[in-house]
Predict the structure.
Amino acid sequence: MALFRSQVPRFLENNQIQTVHQILKRTISAESTDLKGILAAKIPKEQERIKAFRKQHGATKVGEVTVDMMYGGMRGIKGLVCETSVLDPDEGIRFRGYSIPECQKTLPKADGGDEPLPEGLFWLLITGDVPTKAQVKAISKEWAQRAELPPHIVTMLNNFPASKMHPMTQFSAAITALNTESKFAQAYAQGVKKALYWESIYEDSMDLIAKLPVVAATIYRNSFQDGKGIGAIDTSRDWSANFTSMLGFDSKEFTELMRLYLTIHSDHEGGNVSAHTVHLVGSALSDPYLSFAAGINGLAGPLHGLANQEVLVFLTKMKKELGDDIPDEKVKEYVLKTLKGGQVIPGYGHAVLRKTDPRYTCQREFAQKHLPKDPMFKLVSQVYKVVPPVLMETGKVKNPWPNVDAHSGVLLQYYGLKEMNYYTVLFGVSRALGVLASLVWDRALGLPIERPKSMSTDCLVKATQAK
Ligand code: CMX
């Protein structure tokens, strides 16, 4: 792609490159609100730590690969490095070492609010440090300032056949088309040095996170509200408050729910479909827009992010067929009928987790606090009682407990966001926080293009016979 001088991003011009080097040399205090400066100071230390670790342990074995693992979706193979979060099968996710209840307690909240601000979680994911309120406020402001969409994206979104195109399809296409704005792609075309890749990946990631709620809200308005305008971004408000307002909701409680929702859906270590896809595509040095769009296409699958839509379809159908106040026995019959029909029970099971997902638990606690009498919440609670023993009885389901998707739809319904096929878009907005924080570190650590070895069954047969 030829670049004209006017297209060269400002930070890449000679004098600006020096500014990047200056950032690298600047002394930054722990209280600084300059996130990029903080990262620039951390990256060389982390590079050194990993270099020394690899020098000492580069040849140390951390696991083995069996034939079953290869045919079984690579379950249990330790083959990826992801710094932002680690998933324990029993305890659930820890973001940089912090569990969900710890994040709810420790991360800064909006004035008068109880739930953590996703901006704070992003800071934690990308730096490993719990931010101050001032640092979180600075991110809210920065994202609001970066939120504007280029006109061709607005035109594109407004020309989609929104009534018949799934919101996730619109979302993915718009994110791909946003790569016209990629500073990394431009920097790469300019021959930027590998050591500085992270810097334009960071810029793209911040731009993309800032723009996602605007893209998502436009899709919502076009798909379900006859293209009603989304209004203007307010730079004094946080990311979630601007998002709910653009969606057309003015309930403070719904905005609190969205802060919690956008925090807990952000990251689930590196091997899940969306995170792994972003990491893989990014390893080919595709820019963050292309990499994230690829991950969004994976999130759109019913065994991954689309399950939150599927859960509500499942519950609504059950209610329609069996009415209100369904006895447990009838719920069980319905579940068994679903399994017999060859379908999965959406929102239940997990490839890694072996207990109730703490992301489910914190949504349940939110419901107990704010909507304890809601009939759909009661049904969700009843399903929580009935489904696990039924799945255990199948003898094959490794985790009979609910995952994050088993609860979210009911909360969104309660506050009036009833359009189920929109739910995965919200998941996608949140997932950007984790996977893009990881992408910045992938490039900062100079991780190479990903290329595991595959084998044919014939080769495997030979390899096992040789043993
Ligand atoms: N309902 C019915 N059957 C289920 C099941 C469920 N909720 N969960 C697992 N099983 C079945 C599997 O389909 C598999 O059956 P086969 O051997 O006949 O193919 C068997 O139990 C063993 O599967 P597993 O090892 O327990 O689970 P996997 O790691 O293969 O799959 C997951 C994990 C999430 C895809 C699966 O549990 C599932 O399909 N759940 C429902 C969909 C869902 O909620 N997805 C969202 C997950 C969270 C997220 O990524 O957002």
In short: Confidence is low (pLDDT under 50) at residues 1-18. The chain has 21 helices and three strands. Strands lie at 85-88, 92-95, 98-99.
